[in-house]
Amino acid sequence: xxxxxxxxxxxxxxxxxxxxxxxxxxxxxxxxxxxxxxxxxxxxxxxxxxxxxxxxxxxxxxxxxxxxxxxxxxxxxxxxxxxxxxxxxxxxxxxxxxxxxxxxxxxxxxxxxxxxxxxxxxxxxxxxxxxxxxxxxxxxxxxxxxxxxxxxxxxxxxxxxxxxxxxxxxxxxxxxxxxxxxxxxxxxxxxxxxxxxxxxxxxxxxxxxxxxxxxxxxxxxxxxxxxxxxxxxxxxxxxxxxxxxxxxxxxxxxxxxxxxxxxxxxxxxxxxxxxxxxxxxxxxxxxxxxxxxxxxxxxxxxxxxxxxxxxxxxxxxxxxxxxxxxxxxxxxxxxxxxxxxxxxxxxxxxxxxxxxxxxxxxxxxxxxxxxxxxxxxxxxxxxxxxxxxxxxxxxxxxxxxxxxxxxxxxxxxxxxxxxxxxxxxxxxxxxxxxxxxxxxxxxxxxxxxxxxxxxxxxxx
Length: 460
Description:
Blueprint: H1 8-17, H2 26-45, H3 50-58, E1 65-66, E2 73-74, H4 76-88, E3 95-96, H5 104-118, H6 122-143, H7 146-149, H8 154-171, H9 175-185, H10 202-222, H11 238-243, H12 251-254, E4 266-267, H13 278-289, E5 297-304, H14 309-312, H15 316-320, H16 325-328, H17 332-342, H18 358-364, E6 367-371, E7 383-389, E8 394-399, H19 412-425, H20 432-444, H21 453-457
Parallel strand pairs: 5-6
Antiparallel strand pairs: 1-2, 3-4, 5-7, 7-8
C-alpha cells in the first residue's frame, strides 16, 4: 500500500510486522529488562492483599499460565488479568514522563501469558515486550493530558492498544492481522477514573484488564476478525472517544519508528503512590531533614501543575483526610505529610495504620496548593513545597525532576533493592530478587525457550 494512503494503524502494523529483536538498541533492551524485574516483584508483593485475593478468586480459571509467585497455573487471560492488577495495585510500578502511563504492568503480564499460550520463544516474548511498551508510551506522547481530562485512565485505554500490538509482534502476525488486532483492541479499551471519588479498587484492575484485552484482540485479529483501520484517527476513533480530540497529532506515534525508542526512557518510582506526587515527597523529606518538626509547621503550600489538580488536590478536604490507604496514594496532602513525618512513602506508609496516624493527618490538614502556570507538567515532573512555620519563618524545597526518571534514573542495583524490599514486605525471601534480575536479562537477551518456572517460586 502507498504510504500516503496508510492509516495510523497501518503504519504501525507495517513497522511491527517487519521488526526483529536484533533491531532493539541496548538502552531500550535494558529498560525492558528493568521493567520485568520491577513488575514481577510488585505483583508478588500484592498477592495477599484484599484486592489481590479478590482478583485471584474472580479469575480462578485453571490452565498452564503463570501468576507470578503462585505455584498453581491459570488460563492465560486470567493470569494476565491477575498479574496486571496486582502489579499495578500499589501504584509503585514504572511510568512514563510524557504521559503517566504504566506500561510494565500491562505489557509484561500480557506477553508472558502470550508466550505460554502460544509456546513462544524468549526472543518472541522479548520483542513483544519492547513493541508493547514502545507503542503504549508513544500513544502517551500523543495523548498528553487529554485522556485524563476526558475522565479516562490512560493506562487502561492506551495499555489495551500497547498490549495488542505487543502480542501481535510476539506471535509474528502479518501487517494485515496486526492492523485488525489494533482495530479490534479499540473496542476493548475501557477504564474510568471515578475511583478518585472514594479510593476504590477499579484503577488497579485497569492494567490487568488491558493486558488480557490485548491477548484477546490479537487472538481475534490473528484469526481474521476485522477491525477499523482508522481506529486511532477516525471520526469515531480512539482519540475522539477517549480524549475528546478530533484531530490529534500522531507524529510522536509514527515518526522515527525503529530509530527513536521511548522504551529506553522509562521512569521507575522510588515511592508507592501517584507519579505526580513523587517530587513533592522528596521536597517534604528535604524539609524534615533541615530539622523542621511537624508541630512547628503552620502551613504548607505546594505549587502544582494545573493538570494534576483533579487527581491529587481536589476536593481539598477529602484529599487532606483520605478515606482509604489507596485514596491516600492520590492525595497530595497525605503524600507530602507522610514524606515529612515518616521520611519515606513506600508500601509501609500506605497501610490502614499509617493513613490513620494522627501526626500525619494533622499535618496533611495544613497542606494546600496553588497552580503554577509555568509548571511544565507533563513534559517534566517537578516539585516546589513552601512551609510557613509558627514563628513566621518560611522554608522551601524544590525538586527539579522525577527521581527515577530520565533525568535522575534509578540504577539496576537500586531497582533490585526495591524488588527485594517488596518481596520481603510480602513475607518472601528477598534474595530471590537476584534470580529475578537474571531472568529478566536472559529474557530480553532472547535466550532459548521461555521458561517461567522460576517466576512461580520467587522466594516462597
